[in-house]
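Quick one - inputs below.
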Amino acid sequence: MKEIVVISGKGGTGKTSISSALAYLAKEDAIVADCDVDAANMHLLLDADFDKKEDFYSGETAFIDEDSCVNCGKCKEVCRFDAINVIQNQHRVDALSCEGCWYCSRVCPTGAIEMKEQKAGDLYISHIKTGTKMVHAKLGFGAENSGKLVAKVKTTARELAKKESKKYMLVDGSPGIGCPVISSLSGAHLVVLVTEATVSGLHDLKRVLKLCESFSLKSVCIINKCDLNSQMSKNLENFLKEKNIPIIAKLPYDETFTKALSEAKTIIEYKNHSDISQVLIKSWNEIKNHI
Amino acid sequence: MIDIVIASGKGGTGKTTLSVNLSHYLGENGKKIALGDLDVEEPNSSLFVDLELLEEKISYKMVPRWISENCTLCGECATNCNFNAIVALPSEILVCKELCHSCYACSELCPTDSLPMAEEKIGTIKYYKNSNFDFVEGRLDIGQEMAVPLISQTIGFVKENFKNSIRIYDAPPGTSCPVIEATKESDFVLLVTEPTPFGLNDLILAVETMRVIKKRFAVVINRYGIGDNRVEEYCKNEGIDIAAKFLNDKEVAKLYAKGKLLYKYIDHFKISLSELLKYLRNETGVEL
Amino acid sequence: MRLKITYKFELKGVEMKILFTAKGKSWEDLVDPRFGRAEMFVVYDEDKDELTAISNDEAKQKAHGVGLQSAKKALEAGVDAIITGNGAGEKALEILEKSNIKVYVGAGEVTLENAYKAFKEGRLQLQF
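Output:
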């Protein structure tokens, strides 16, 4: 079973549209994992049914047990997030403001503060339109994506892929270069970098590539919106050549993508014979060859 | 006066276009306007012309700084840190500033006072002026992961310095902590969306968020005409006001890319803008 | 240009302690390609010819910064080298490099036994 991770460094490069197209092409050969939890949209394009649900826990919130509490006020003194207030003569924690730092619980003289695990969101295993399954998540209110959640999505997907003897695990990775991205990349066999021909695109690509190199991960690149700025495109191509990263596709800026998205379709479904679709079909074949 | 925040579930729906055009339009019509760019990870100030920089402030967050002199390397600090930001090595204490949430626990519970809290630069707040309004931009330094403190400080700067202006804020995209920080002290929130499945999906998340923090809000539909009518249906079923509809027009995208003001060149845009202002005037009672 | 660095070991008589990121605690179990969120760690003491398992359950509960705690565990176990799949994140790697612990990558799909063999034969890469 081979893991293919699609990342971009910068958001908005068209990563999800491209990973969805690849997922569509992979059909039943792959289990899909959507780790881009902050802006999860793959479920729309792939028509996920949210079949199985599982609670996801991350972080804690402080709870004051009124029976043990003597209202000494130490907790309120140490809280930097204004999360403890006195309401009707009783110190209470405002769960929304609580950062889960544990400080109050450490200083409470009567041990009246308990740190309770927080449900941060839901993990889903869905059937998708290509006849296979997708693992994805929805974050709860105020929750953030994390290495932990990405790891959970991937581990669940990996187990599924093994159980159902799938050839591939296609991961839509998190944007950025922090913990969620590291978690997205760990265990990958091939990284597909989606970038765009803009200054911030190149800047973020460099940062994320550094991470891939550090992990000794094989990488290939897809340049999106390549005709917006020809000078920038050239810079991008030169940089990639220098780093020995094969460019497996160059996609022009095309309204067709937008139209397909607005109808919740992957571009392949929308216009199978369009130029972009043909390029992506070729790319998928190249990706399979590279592994 | 009033704080109006322009937000959305996801990036790319047209928040900045709206905030910029709204601010210029109102400013030209004699209103005192202050615009705050709270998208601190990726502020779009390059859209403006004729900007004069008047003031620049450094923005800090507090993080512990290790002083070895009296430290016994007991490792209490690492135990007290719930965010893995402190690593107690055999010969030194390492602080990972990016992971620090500034809770002060390690610092205040240290038995030898070896981790005093110190200022760590996280970004800048810049105050610009143009012929129509005052503009304040918060910009997070590259590598800094936490936007919330800077967003809070930027809002504070705007409220403090422009008490008599109509204050408009361009919020960051999404529905998590940065957006909550941007909207929680506002008087009114405009949620900008597009009439597509993505737009609807993210709008629902944004609406949920607004309801939890109990903010007054209305929806603005941008690129009206592409996609379908499910956003409108959703708003109707949920009893949510649609403050204005901006029509889908390729000309708009072209002009935007050139940094031009849309209401100056496109009639239907100007009409939608007036619609929006009329709605806001009725809802807030402020002379917009 | 990415350089592939392979090391041949000529240090005879210097017994090392090696940490594996692992999916199980015996020689037949597989290396876990992940660092921070590895299933568990296994330390091999060449001198005593002993294999010891170390739990990673507690650290994995945190949302961020897990790699740092793994680096710390490696330090506490007094290891000289780490054998893993992809490697450690930037911050964790800094800590390890500071403490002269070398991280060897490329063993992500094999058993601990084969990973060890590959290491001794200089077939693994040093992470940079």
